[in-house]
Amino acid sequence: MSMKKSLKLGLAALVVVVAALVFMPVQTEAQDVDHVFFFIGDGLGNAQATLTEYYLQDKYDDPGYELNMHRLDEMAVTTTYGADKVVPGSAQTATALASGHNTNFGYVGVTTDHEPVTTIMDRARENDWGTGLVTTTRVTHATPAAFASHVPDRGMENEIIEHYLEKEVDVIAGGGYRHLYPADHPASTRNDDRNFFEEFAEAGYNVFEAPQVDEFRDFEPEGREKILAGFHPTHMSYEIDRDPAEEPSLAEMTEVSLNTLEEYGQFMMMIEGGRIDHAAHNNDPGGMIYDTIAFDEAIGVALDFYEENPDNTLIIVAGDHETGGLGLNSCEGMEYGYYLDFEPIIAQDASIEEGIEFENAEQWYQDIADKFGLDELSSSEQAWMEHGVAIEEEYGHEADIARPGRIGGVYDGGQDYDVPYDEEAVDQELAAHWPQAPWISPAQSTLAHIVSRRAKIGWNTSSHTGSAIQLTAHGAGASHYEGRLDNTDVARITAAILDFELDPEVGAAELD
């Protein structure tokens, strides 16, 4: 049966450069809200959510299927630019969403002058609310860190975990235990002898270390309890690769955290679908879709809670920025027509980055057949793949598909952009100039683009874009998130709804 979905409108990713924007004051009034779920899909733009919904409609043969995030009552559009960049990073966008401050690239919870900011979670904690940070990334990664830490460099993750302990964030769950163990632990990236699992336990936390997954799932709080849970040395696995015996899902972490924080009466949780961004960096359609589904299932946990507590529960679902410049129809030209083909994605059984790894050519071709259904390649695909494999064999995993002599990328210091493109590949029109994230290999990058091209999906970058993105909201106070908003307005509106005061220079949204 054909798995192609006709589209009435051609969709493409749009990067909007905004020189100046003027926003009207937002009028709100305080609400009786006791429970706040703040969901952030890292890298989640409109195209990512739409593609995921279309994929599920096709998979289930249900054209009316809606994601939970699209079932929420209110919708707005938010900008994403930072103080110093039109195309932002996650640290500065999360800081804007958490505090109302527009700051610089890489800054976490600080102003452009490195002054600590006040976040909505800071105010929640000061008002004796329960607070929680749940993520599929490292718990010390940029997005959760912006709600409860203050550092001028997002890479200061060893310091970020110290801030969580000092601020007594009540529930912390995700990956990244390499920043929690002392230097003598084989997975540690610390340079001291501090063991934060032990320090949090001494502070009264229930501590769950890998592989205590079942113990975490079965946890039943008795009164106001605290949790620190770390299930992976770095980011948790992509959802498409996740082993349930070793790692809980984002929905499961959300549910355990909710059960714990509910004992506080009032609570605020930030829940991040962080690996949506990573898969989009990799131009990995299946990886991105599966992590978006996992994120949406976590939203379903909050909606179930809302159904029982509709009068005092607020659900916010935001992206921080768009990643990949995703277009829902390949940019190859008119010959493909106006449709998407989900069969190549349905055949995908592993992530591009972590689910398959190049060892040798024979193994590679067998794995792409077994895990991606690519047992037969077209002549063009075969040429592209041979090119990627040849580069990997000669230069190694860290080589760039279009600049084979350039090892590494901006994330690990390899910023030598003087190395030219592979002119032979360009001359032969092997399309070896497609974007490649610096942490995947030439063979992996080639695989990502063969799958994407077969699905008629286009990517214009392996980085972030500056597109405005959607925000949805539901429940008490949700009607105040409307129209076109600056991302800093989200924090101001939330603070006003909760009757919290942010920093004087930020203020709250004006009250009626």
Automatic annotation (TrEMBL):
Similarity comment text for this entry: Belongs to the alkaline phosphatase family.
Keyword hit for Iron: no
Top-level taxon in the UniProt lineage: Bacteria
UniProt cofactor(s): Zn(2+); Mg(2+)
Record's protein name: Alkaline phosphatase
Gene3D superfamilies: Alkaline phosphatase, crown domain, Alkaline Phosphatase, subunit A
Active-site annotation: S90
List of residues binding Zn(2+): D42, D277, H281, D320, H321, H464
Keywords: Magnesium, Metal-binding, Phosphoprotein, Signal, Zinc
Stored SMART domains: alkPPc
Provenance organism: Halanaerobium polyolivorans
Metal-binding as UniProt keyword: yes
Cofactor binding mode and count: Binds 2 Zn(2+) ions. Binds 1 Mg(2+) ion.
Segment forming the signal sequence: 1-30
Residues bound to Mg(2+): D42, H141, T143, E272
GO molecular function: alkaline phosphatase activity; metal ion binding
